[in-house]
Design brief:
Number of helices: 17
Number of strands: 20
Oligomer: single chain
Distance between the termini: 50 Å
Strand content: 15-25%
Length: 529
Amino acid sequence: MSTSLSSASASQPSAAPEAADRALGKGPWDVVVIGSGIGGLVTASQLAAKGAKVLVLERYLIPGGSGGSFRREGYTFDVGASMIFGFGQKGHTNLLTRALADVGEACETIADPAQLEYHLPDGLDVAVDRDYDSFVARLSARFPHEAKGIRAFYDTCWSVFSCLDAMPLLSLEDPAYLAKVFFRAPLACLGLARWLPVNVGDVARKHIQDPALLKFIDMECFCWSVMPADLTPMINAGMVFSDRHAGGINYPKGGVGVIAQKLVAGLQRHGGAIRYQARVTKVLLENGQAVGVRLSGGEEIRARRVVSNATRWDTFGGLIEEQHTPAAERTWRRRYKPSPSFLSLHLGVEASLIPAGTHCHHLLLEDWQAMEDEQGVVFVSMPSLLDPSLAPPNRHIVHAFTPSSMEAWSGLGPTDYAAKKQADADRLISRLEAILPGLGAAIRHREVGTPRSHRRFLGRSGGSYGPVPALRLPGLLPMPFNRTAIPGLYCVGDSCFPGQGLNAVAFSGFACAHRLGADLGLNPWALPD
């Protein structure tokens, strides 16, 4: 089977000598983290920096999960999206910068002059400039009758972002933290509380009436939340719609996988360890409390606390047997459902295909009615435009992906599966010709990943991107935090507050490490600067 995720190769951080015994799983461990996605690695590295003995167990060959990278024939491909938030230098929302700095690491980044360029129905082509006023002016020129509403809506997003950026983002489950942060920034705390139960659609309609512009706001949300505005929390939108102009989109030189590699290096520098090809099959419970994990080979590893960076569907009913699944998790399943997975193309193309000045990130939709359909929206990243080292000389990377459900790929035998991969990939390439004329003839390397690929190599239920509301919910209020109803068991990642995206799961990692640090008596008294 040809897939963009199989047989990945990348440099793996080697264990530090003082961690060699623990790298073999000998402990004793304070915390075992299941999975090395960015949320799990931020949790693990933060805890190691606090002095905890931490072991990360990764089922695959490389760290990062959907935030990893793999190499093929001179290309370095990002597994997931290349549009990265959280690498700014000021304020508190630059969570990737902070997470790396806390363990003595840093990523060299390349500034992207735009978040992305939209190619939408009725000729609505809009590039989101790094400069805020330039973007607002560009959008207002397309909708001059809505200029006042456009400014009011995006300024409201800035007010949400300002609340977030005024405080260190740690665990909302820790009363001591809440008291300290309220004392430091009371107005920001009150402002943030105001927006927690609010969704974007309600705010947009308060300021904007034009149906086409409201559809654009839907797409602004969908491009990172895979949900329309009515289902997207205002807190998340405030972060994304403003940080793209504040800290900006900054690509890590060498590929997105460098972030995970550097977090692993920081983890090991502080005495933590990671094991690859270590698939956890069960969380061990004694007297209703999590006390460790069991690996696929039968090995058991004990720890004072267990953190699952798997999805909640894989954690409860999977690592935790269904009869032990708390009622709160069943309630969560009624409120949230898995988002679709993706059909992914990783292409190496002739560099001459892409004109100078082309933006790195694009979004294509030909019909508004198809926004939430199977393979409706197409996302495109060309990160070698920012970092030429990702591709061989005279080549560029085109990574295209479109939402696709597991149901569309289920029940297919090998022959039918291969035929569908070929046909769907060809159809996607044909659609991409609208923004990259001549693409088909310029391809020199091609790999196809399906929801089955994502499920197999990322270990995610249905290959899902993460949870989306199954019904309209009040903003972020129903999203669970890190502690679970099972003592000793915590969750981290996109199934936890505040949701999907690298910066969001980094927030989850900071929060989880802080809550665990409080429970283990490791947290410093003072808040971070």
